[in-house]
Amino acid sequence: xxxxxxxxxxxxxxxTRNIIKSYLSELENIQIxxxxxxxxxxxxxGIKKSFETQNSILLIDISENTEKALESIRxxxxxxxxxxxxxxxxxxxxxxxxxxxRAGAKEFISKPVIKTDFKETITALIQEIDNKTVNESxxxxxxxxxxxxxxxxSIAVNLAIELAQLSKxxxxxVDLNLQLGDVATFLDLTPSFAMDYIANNIQxxxxxxxLKTLTRYKNTSLYVIxxxxxxxxxxxxxxxxxxxxxxxxxxxxxxxxxxxGTNIDSKTIKALDMSDLILLxxxxxxxxxxxxxxxxxxxxxxxxxxxxxKLVLNRYMENEEIKTSDIEEVVKQKVYWKIPNxxxxxxxxxxKGVPVNEINQESNIAQNYMDFASKVSDYLITQKLLKDxxxxxxxxx
Length: 397
Known about the structure:
Elements: E1 6-10, H1 14-25, E2 37-40, H2 43-52, E3 56-61, H3 66-79, E4 84-89, H4 94-103, E5 107-110, H5 115-130, E6 139-144, H6 152-167, E7 171-176, H7 183-186, H8 195-201, H9 207-213, E8 215-216, E9 222-225, H10 231-234, H11 239-249, E10 255-260, H12 266-274, E11 277-282, H13 286-302, E12 309-316, H14 324-331, E13 335-340, H15 343-352, H16 364-396
Parallel strand pairs: 1-2, 1-3, 3-4, 4-5, 6-10, 6-11, 7-9, 7-10, 11-12, 12-13
Antiparallel strand pairs: 8-9
Helix pairs in contact: 2-3, 4-16, 6-16, 11-12
């Protein structure tokens, strides 16, 4: 640690607090002074200390007074985004874990606390503070189609802003349509730096400098990398640079949303390979369905699992001539989400350069995007939990 790390421990059980302090003293290559461990049995007192303390990790039990504990986590994350939080609970159900993560917890520790799991979790959090490792909890979501004009960019933009508002964490929105990108236009941004500058300088940019090259959307936690202003510059960007940029972004961001162009090249493949989730976007018509089939064939050749691919129908209307079940039967993929056709709200948002929730938050499409972000977030949290569980089980075996 470059500076003293403070641990704030909120748990009503004295025995659990003593066990955790013992585990903290046994961490390898990490020394945490007993003077930097603050323990509380009362939530309010512990949260107050959290607001007053810098460079800290909060360990908070949510087994009892769950709603109060979650609300305290939300308030802390809203005002002190640099505090890393791990929630503890005897109730280790998927529902409880997702609620904790949504509130702002970075990790979840089941009670009674198991030494190996605890040490692994705390070490990961400390390394994240030190920026020594890539943030493994960061998830990359790509919107993709090999067919233009179906609203792929709208989905990327609106999903990214909703994820930022839902998670209260930093979200990066990357325009990888390097020749004809529209992300900056959709948000009425005039970036000082674009993808070509970042690609050429990525090896010399530390985390703080990289963040400064991104364009922040208003007073939100959404940051944008726009496509190059000069089309010729886009040809010079390599897949290796794309990989390096995404790996660097993962250190500072909780989500990376990529709007991928329709061209299939090494840069596209690199972004798709690195994605945790690919939103395959289509509209309900025959050419689009044929396009989905070709995309699925390509994904199969690339070795992607079905869990990685989620089919999203845009501009969806009830009573379509082609039924959802027909599409699923043809492409052998379930429809993951449907975004309603609300032409007036969407076009107003595009023309004004704002997300749809700034046009009419009560509209069906704005509400749909809120629910969409929630579903995507919950799915990725669940996948992370499953991955962590399998990893720990393999270690024990």
